[in-house]
Specification:
heterodimer; A: 417 residues; alpha/beta; Rossmann fold; six-stranded mixed sheet; globular; B: Alpha-Beta Plaits; four-stranded antiparallel sheet; 4 strands
Chain lengths: 417, 79
């Protein structure tokens, strides 16, 4: 008996063994992990979770590993903050921020999925891991691989900004800059994953990798006192995160830890890359690929693998998918920073901008419990806000000079305007 | 013989063109549709292309020239 029954096609339901495989050989549908929930229910309890480590691994009974976790032991269990200041601005009494800007070790929610992916990769006997990424995923895979003693290959487009690459090189992976278009890099990585005996985290290990996102839902429910929120607002890139947050809540319901899940799940995209939001607004079932053009690079996935499922999940929960302009994204980042002291990356700006829009549209009741997922740290995308954050006061090293500057500002700090 | 799994997406103005039939004739490729969602306006097809590696490359270029989008079956991998 085992908690994992196998892999299963999300479309035709054909079963596969728990190996490094991601596409159904019959219908080419995506595979996901199928669990034996009766077995898990017999081995899990709230008490066991509460007495577990203060990390994502307190939920290991619901994660796709067979042994003990070996990689990313410090990831997850990030703060859920009652955002009273931001809530007041938006007319929400019970607004919460799930703050993955402080996730460990690389300050984004990717630390959750990578911890699960690499632990499973080691269980499957891999000694080399790889990913294709322009930012957060590469950081996380490189850092975790270094700590786990795994060989690591990171594929990037050749014209990626130098700063983004440096964040990876510090961990000493092999960074491969591919001299081609974004589509060429995609295609090459698909072929590399088929050719080399590596754990390509977002290709052949994807069914395990994606499950790590469920821990955001588990933590939210536990931190709310074993209750689910009325609404969540989730950024959409590949669409996987949104579907897994829904899955996490429903698994907790199946385990009997929480009551019936009625959470409305809302999606957030940047206007310059909003294939899922467009399908939602046009009442389409399929995703029309787009060419991304947005400052929210970590959400810039023009042909998202799980876009269809994110759309379906949102509709089934009676949620809404909205988009935000780049200007609104920057405003969202600044609003979150200046009300709650949280510096989010551009994806967080997208989430806050859409949260604000939905609040304005009257989607939330004043007393409803709303959780916004902030998935990455603003230190990684500082370039987006540099033109908007102002400049320091320039003074001489004399008390009178400071007094003059203070007087000119009306006698108070600028953040108390 | 090699094979490649791809997703092709049709823009609105290409939906009437029999592009899968055409590349099967223009290149030495076997095309095998596994899953699809096509409407009168637009849609996508998950397809297996089987043939020599070079012929697969030529076939993909041919598809792109016909104005359809060709992605790996995983779609966008870069995250």
């Amino acid at each position: 008996m085992s908690k994992i029954k196998g892999l299963q096609c999300k479309e035709c339901k054909k079963s596969y063994p728990t190996v490094a495989l991601h596409v159904c050989e019959f219908c080419f549908g995506p595979l996901e992990v199928a669990y034996d929930y009766d077995y898990i229910r017999a081995h899990i309890s709230k008490e066991k979770i509460v007495s577990g480590p203060k990390s994502l691994w307190r939920y290991k009974d619901l994660l796709p590993i067979v042994g003990e976790p070996t990689v990313g032991l410090s990831g997850g269990f990030t703060p859920l903050i009652h955002a009273k200041n931001l809530g007041r601005r938006l007319g929400l009494d019970e607004l919460y921020i799930k703050n993955d800007t402080v996730n460990s070790p690389t300050l984004s929610f990717k630390d959750r999925v990578v911890a699960v992916a690499l632990t499973r990769a080691k269980e499957l006997g891999f000694d080399t891991v790889a990913c294709a990424s322009t930012g957060n995923l590469a950081n996380s895979v490189s850092a975790h691989a270094a700590a786990a003693g795994l060989q690591c290959f990171v594929f990037i487009p050749y014209d990626l900004e130098a700063g983004k690459i440096l964040g990876n090189l510090i961990y000493k992976p092999t960074v491969v800059a591919v001299n081609g278009t974004y589509d060429d890099v995609n295609r090459l990585c698909s072929e590399v994953a088929g050719e080399f005996p590596w754990a390509f985290v977002n290709i052949n290990i994807r069914p395990y990798y994606a499950e790590g996102s469920k821990t955001l839902a588990y933590e939210t429910a536990e931190q709310l006192g074993w209750e689910t929120p009325d609404h969540v607002v989730v950024p959409i890139a590949s669409g996987s995160l949104l579907t897994k947050i829904s899955k996490g809540f429903h698994e907790f319901e199946q385990m009997g830890f929480i009551g019936k899940v009625t959470t409305r799940i809302h999606g957030a995209q940047a206007e310059g890359c909003s294939p899922v939001a467009a399908a939602f607004k046009e009442d389409r079932a399929f995703i029309r690929p787009v060419k991304p053009k947005t400052i929210a690079k970590s959400l810039a996935i023009g042909n998202p693998a799980d876009g269809f499922y994110a759309l379906k999940t949102t509709r089934e929960s009676n949620g809404v998918i909205e988009h935000a302009t780049d200007e609104e994204v920057v405003e969202g980042m600044m609003l979150l920073a200046q009300t709650e002291g949280i510096f989010a990356e551009t994806a967080g700006g997208v989430t806050i901008a859409v949260l604000k829009k939905l609040a304005k549209q009257g989607v939330f009741a004043k007393n409803s419990r709303v959780v916004a997922y902030i998935t990455g740290n603003g230190l990684k995308t500082q370039e987006a806000v540099v033109p908007h954050v102002g400049v320091p006061w320039q003074i001489q090293p004399k008390l009178t000079s400071f007094q003059e500057a203070l007087k000119a500002a009306g006698g108070k700090s600028v953040n108390k305007e | 013989m090699a094979s490649l799994k791809v997703r092709i997406s049709f823009p609105d103005d290409k939906i009437k063109e029999p592009v899968i039939y055409q590349i099967g004739h223009e290149y030495k490729l076997v095309t095998n549709i596994r899953r699809a969602d096509v409407t009168e306006k637009t849609g996508w097809v998950d397809l297996e292309l089987t043939g020599d590696s070079e012929e697969i490359e030529r076939g993909i270029e041919g598809l792109k020239k016909k104005g359809v989008k060709v992605d790996p079956i995983e779609r966008n991998i870069i995250e």
